[in-house]
Design goal:
By secondary structure, this protein is of the alpha/beta class. The protein has eleven helices and eight strands. α2 packs antiparallel against α9. The chain is globular, with a radius of gyration of 17 Å. The two termini are 33 Å apart. Bound molecules: S-adenosylmethionine.
């Protein structure tokens, strides 16, 4: 594991309130969650029946997007808001295309840190490291990533299903300013991979789900297509552009997921010229 993660005492896992990584884990059928997480996951499922296939659709988008950029020649990956490991993880997809790929995972949840060893079993030729860091601490996170990645060369930066936990207030999380700082740090030829919950496709269900998240102590900010598009300003969108998540370069399983019903999540991939 990289840097100070090994030196500092492990952060405490708070089981008194739900955490996004653990709620998402419950939706994916994982075992790394606690009764408080299950309770919130079930409450949200009751008002938005799409969340189980939404979580699956989102994982599948990450895999297709990573494969796409790896096949385009990207060999360095920075994945922020990694989540609890599920197979295949991002490094497995990237290193299947090119074993020498280097991957840095980052998340701020102590339970993801505890699971980090499972994320670090990469190929012998490549490198896989984990940074326990908050996306809002841009300088620290980039410095940690630079211990493994060469930022003078292209990097794929992924924030998959993370930005809806961040607000866009200039004196708050300032999510657009935040993303810009990350993109500014990337070399030409780098890629941005994003997905985010939207109210556009099912406003009532998403509104209720967001309310449950907030009551559970997790800020939640669904964004319209225009709001999602702002993340990609100045970048070249890869086809088919910004689109509901299962529609992004779908494979047969994604077409099947689409047929099951709407998933209120937008996805997109763009290249920095
Ligand atoms: C819904 S999960 C998505 C996991 C994975 N990217 C995927 O799509 O399968 C969101 C992840 O973002 C992480 N996260 C939330 N806020 C964060 C922050 N401020 N800094 C770093 N990670 C954060 C959570 O801990 C969680 O693991």
């Amino acid at each position: 594991m990289a840097g100070s993660d090994t030196d500092a005492p492990p952060p405490r896992i708070d089981t008194s309130r739900p955490h996004p990584a653990r709620v998402y884990d419950w939706w994916l059928g994982g075992k790394d969650n606690y009764p408080v997480d299950e309770e919130l996951a079930r409450r949200i499922l009751a008002v938005d029946g799409s969340v189980l296939r939404g979580a699956r659709a989102n994982r599948r988008f990450m895999q297709r997007a990573v494969r796409t950029v790896a096949e385009a020649g990207i060999r360095q990956f920075l994945d922020i808001g990694t989540g609890i490991p599920t197979e295949p993880n991002l490094h497995q997809v990237a290193q299947q295309v090119a074993p020498e790929s280097r991957v840095v995972y980052a998340d701020n949840d102590p339970i993801v840190l505890r699971q980090a060893q499972a994320l670090l079993r990469g190929s012998a030729e490549g490198g896989t490291t984990y940074a326990h860091a908050d996306v809002r601490d841009v300088d620290t996170l980039l410095a940690r990533a630079a211990e493994s990645l060469d930022f003078t060369r292209p990097v794929a930066l992924s924030l998959v299903a993370l930005t809806h936990y961040l607000d866009d207030e200039p004196d708050g999380d300032d999510v657009y300013g935040l993303l810009k700082r990350y993109v500014d740090a990337l070399a030409p030829g780098s890629h941005l991979i994003l997905s985010q919950v939207t109210p556009d496709l099912n406003p009532e269900a998403v509104g209720k789900a967001a309310e449950h998240f907030r009551r559970g102590g997790t800020p939640f900010h669904p964004r319209s297509l225009a709001g999602f598009a702002r993340f990609f300003e100045g970048l070249e969108l890869l086809g088919p552009g910004l689109i509901p998540v299962s529609g992004w370069r779908p494979e047969p399983q994604d077409v099947a997921l689409q047929a099951e019903g709407i998933v209120p999540v937008y996805a997109g991939v763009a290249r920095k010229a």
